[in-house]
């Protein structure tokens, strides 16, 4: 503890920088780092090494090897490089390795050395070759900038959505710039390059010369430039050993430093913490590392080995053959607590807690001191914050213990910050573990978010750890566990050496009914790997049949898709499958399939009714559904056919079909209709007027109304219209004509099968009381009263009713008795009633 | 016996939310096509649309002119055309012809098709076949629930009945499931579910799937409605076939209530023009007589008129101040009531006139005889006479169906096609839907079935049998009627003024079967003990109950019951259940129907007409 600040190096008056070891690397590097192309992803990402690059020329026959390691040096992948010469390597934000080849092709590899895709940077690049390339990160994703042999720049700001932009020419540029970099400002990517003593800024429209304000004179060339992690700051290293530091907009100078070393540095990167006022740049030469900032003195380290710098959000990672270290500015909280002789509340609290453990009364003294100043809350917060910035679990623990100790003396200290810090540290320590090898700092972790960290664990196929973290942090299943399980399953289906059954079972066992897991997605992945059978097995687990169908169709399992679609109850889905099937199968097979699926069949029939009448007919034909076939032709006889011959023919076909269907009744009716049609045609020809399409009844009525009584009767006989109906028909028609004479003749032609009450009714309807009365007298006794009432002869009705001694009739008449006129009748009835009751 | 608001009745959920939801969505869709546009509306959608967004709202969102979608070339000159249609193939062809003629004329316009309540793949396919899929943009207006009244929601899908029960087309079931899902997201989950019928079961299962897919939303919500009961129309055709004698039903039978409003012609308004009247609980006069048996309505109305007169008369002897008060506060209400009263009196007169002309009493008597199953011969001859007189084919068909169902297919009267050839198809439709059965068709069917099952595997045979079962559906009305005691035993005159049971909606002669089933199941909280009835209804596989934990449901919500009629319900059934709710334990029924129907609509849906 006493030597805790031993690795702290002051820079100027206010800031300390410390460097500590993250891992001792146990990668077995055969080559020196300087002989390799190196790329390390930020946020503790993986390291890619491409050995034996081509520029060395010494063993051109040997194929180079591409190795990928975790940050702790664990090998992740190793593959022989079989493509063209590579100019530059870089990691995208999704931790995909981008390898820029000399011919401008960019090959994309996954973390495990799996080839993903490739794209080209355009024809111009292909022709002029690539001189140099940079991979940079923007808010949209990862970009690639290329310097071609013709000294032109081409860039794409987002490789996920590739849009190539060729930057304007730099006037008078004859040789390669001494140094250049991609800048990202206001969501636009620029190129800053140095040619001799001049600096140029290239945007997509123009090339403009820029001068950094306050640059010391005598600069003849810029050797190195560095942009900070957030693109806010820029550092320039000149051939005079002078370093200029300012804003990336080149509008403001922050500070300058003269290191008096004229040798070009190997690497120069910014080392600053978010929200810190301190600006510092780390410059690396072959054997020397220098931290310079706004101070007359710099911090110097000796490098024992070839090292490589990786800029991070809040510091710099430095790795070499044997170690991996982190250099950063000591955060304020840590500085306050651990600075020698610090009297900050946090420092006192830490001290108090230690004394307390020693059971010394000094603990009380320290506590009192803090409390007297009223700084206990602040002290606790400081300890919690400082714990976050510590790398060593021991130190984290003692700080947290101090915080927890301090909390006891506070009434109302919200526990969230303490609890969350404990959880976060636990997660961080887990992923920092040697085996996992993601050395994230607390600030990086917060910037990256837990979701992205989980994604990265999934990417490394560290499923169990990811799930444990989800469970530990109690993340909602949909965001956490089930997402990871789905990824796991997608990975699992790619394991070609395991049998379909085993994979399907294993996946189902793990996933079960976890909400948010889409079995169809996993199945789609399986199908993508060429494992159709597995995909079908997996689809069986998919609870939503709607999700199963599209994939089944894609896999050409249309019949299965059809039954699944029907199960889903979604008719649209069924229809989609049907049309698919229709195109896929020949007509016969298609109909057979339909036949076994009544629901699909009726759906398709509905469609055919409107859109494909012929198909409908074929459908019925194939099913030998003569009944429906008959109906179909009947419909055609009045809907589709215009000419009378066509209509009769359609009816004939219909009648045949009905016979086949053993529906004699319908067949007979159809034949009648044919006869009627022909007859109507003849009537039209002979009598004129409109007969076609009238019903039989209306035809007869029309004939009577037209005075063709003979014809009407003939027709009625031909078509065997029942007597009763004919009488009704004639009665109404003649009454409509008001041909009372004919009506009377008709009524006397024979005994009416419908009685004579209808005659009375109809006449009354035509308001002919006189005629009505004629018939009323002929109405049979049981309906006499009604008839008399109809013609309004209440008195006589009453007489008849009394005669009949029928109670119902009596009351009926009584109900018709109105007011004074029928008063006498009413009395009569009442009397009759009374008499009847007496008896 | 008016149904005034009862103090003990549970409060109904606020369904106006559904209207607002639909309106907002429509406006959003209209705004998707910025600028002036002409709107083509399908005739069927006009009345429902009117209830959601009137012309001025449409104008506010830059709808220029309104056209009806009909088979005529459109004369619109607007550069943007918007079509609001049901997802029907015929509409697609209309749109296609319009777009294609524009193309021929070298004209480019913007077209947008809004499908209500949802689009179907078949429609998109027709657009594609016609080669205009790329020229139009398609959208859905998920407007599936129209609150016609405080307790009545209608999907306004009359075609549901024909599509499902006749053509076996199941696509609307999904729409129903989605509507139920919407209800449960808005008004909380339903703790108790019951249902009967094949369609009810399918709709229920689809709905459950939807809920499972999107769970989390409804969880934790307190249920507002305690029970839901789904019922297929084909469980009970009889009730729907009967003539209605409750006022609201009678108005529907006579004047046709369309989308909650009715056009009263000159003979009712006693002026020279027709009047469109909204019929719902807001019409105070109507609200008091809607559930009344018609015989009471006149008495009630005249009483009301006397009261009104008395209130008018209060004017006399008022001083100036009272008079001022009266004019400013009461007069308007009285005037309004006066207007409504005279309308309904007019309607009653008109109904009376029509009904007496066709010998309504005879008709009712025959219907009752059929329901009770006596004097079959007399009824048959009445029906024959009805046919002979050729009064109205629809009416004759209805009576024949009623006879056929109640007498279990023993229709003795001869079927006749003398109405025209298309009615041959109508008969076959009626037979297919199970509304009409000829003598002993069951035997031939079973013979076919047994032959078929010998030929194919068991599974396929099962399916075919399923398909046949709808054809072979034999009505067991008489037995059911006995089991459920549908024909009340009456000692003396049934007092329609003080009804004892739901039979009052049919003059005390018959308790609606559908309502009786609902009553029985709710009483038992399950189908237990009703096995025999369910078997007789041919619904053994399709009767279900589903109870979830009771603890969450408040006692208030358990008094609310949502009844879902798949294929339509009649006003008589609504009145009967309203009565039941009032009578039995202070409950309240809410109705959701695919459309309000009556016997005539039922028959028309089955008829083949010349296009």
Write a concise keyword list for the protein shown above.
heterodimer; A: 839 residues; alpha+beta; Lipocalin; Methylamine Dehydrogenase, Chain H; 5-stranded antiparallel beta sheet; 4-stranded antiparallel beta sheet; 46% helix; 19% strand; B: 611 residues; alpha/beta; Syntaxin Binding Protein 1, Chain A, domain 2; 14 strands
How would you portray this structure in words?
- Chain A: It is a peripheral membrane protein.
- Among the domains of chain A are: 1-18 and 218-330, Lipocalin (Beta Barrel), CATH 2.40.128; 31-210, Methylamine Dehydrogenase, Chain H (7 Propeller).
- Chain A has a five-stranded antiparallel β-sheet with strand order 1-2-29-28-27, with no helix packed on it. A four-stranded antiparallel β-sheet of chain A has the order 3-4-5-6, with no helix packed on it. Chain A has a four-stranded antiparallel β-sheet with strand order 7-8-9-10, with no helix packed on it.
- Chain A is α+β, with helices and mostly antiparallel strands.
- The longest helix of chain A has 24 residues, at 664-687.
- In chain A, α21 (644-660) packs antiparallel against α22 and α31 (807-816) runs antiparallel to α32 (823-838).
- Helix content of chain A is 46%, strand content 19%.
- Chain A starts with 7 loop residues before the first strand and ends with a helix.
- In chain A, β28 and β29 form a beta hairpin.
- Chain B is α/β, with parallel strands linked by helices and 611 residues long.
- Chain B has helices at residues 16-31, 43-52, 55-60, 89-104, 121-129, 159-166, 171-187, 198-213, 238-241, 247-255, 266-269, 284-289, 294-313, 320-357, 360-372, 376-389, 393-406, 422-433, 441-455, 458-471, 477-484, 513-524, 531-536, 555-558, 571-583, 599-606, and strands spanning 37-42, 63-69, 80-85, 110-115, 136-140, 146-149, 152-154, 192-196, 227-232, 261-264, 275-278, 543-547, 560-566, 588-593.
- A seven-stranded mixed β-sheet of chain B has the order 6-7-14-13-9-8-12, sandwiched between helices. In chain B, strands 2-1-3-4-5 form a five-stranded parallel β-sheet.
- In chain B, β8 (192-196), α8 and β9 (227-232) form a beta-alpha-beta unit.
- In chain B, α4 (89-104) packs parallel to α5 and α13 (294-313) runs antiparallel to α14 (320-357).
- Chain B is globular.
- The interface between A and B is large, with 50 and 48 residues.
